Amino acid sequence: MKNKTYMSVSATLFFFGLLCWIPNLFFYNPNNPPMFIFLTPFIGGVGALLALKVDNQVIKGFLMFFNMVVCLSLGLVFFIGTLLWGP
Predict the structure, then answer these.
(1) pTM
(2) What is d(CA 8, CA 15) in angstroms, rounded to the nearest whole number?
(3) 58-66: long-range contacts at Cβ-Cβ below 8 A with a sequence spacing of 24 or more?
């Protein structure tokens, strides 16, 4: 794949990772919770790995940072939620 392809796929995976949060943030039903949130670590991890293939160091840094935030967002939200509202 070409350099631009890695860049665009990594950016697209970042947005897909964000889209996985929408059902949990806005359409949460405790009786039938959406499971899209559990895809975020995989989507962010793959996006970060593809960002490693980008030649431009600045763009590589941004894509790596944002995809790693998406990758770690599941743990961060669970941790902050437990601190604020308890187990």
Answers:
(1) 0.81
(2) 11
(3) 59/7, 63/7, 63/10, 63/11, 63/14, 66/14
Please give the biggest Cα pair distance in the chain. 47
Q: Count of residues for the chain?
A: 87
Residue/partner pairs of 64-67 with CB below 8 Å, 24 or more apart: 66/14, 67/10, 67/13, 67/14, 67/17
Please work out, in degrees rounded to the nearest 5, the angle formed at the alpha carbon of residue 78 by the alpha carbons of 27 and 83: 115
Task: Please tell me the distance from the alpha carbon of residue 6 to that of residue 52, in angstroms, as a whole number.
Answer: 9
One digit per residue, pLDDT tens: the chain, 87 residues? 688 899 999 999 999 998 888 777 777 676 777 777 888 889 999 999 999 999 999 999 999 999 999 998 888 777 876 787 766
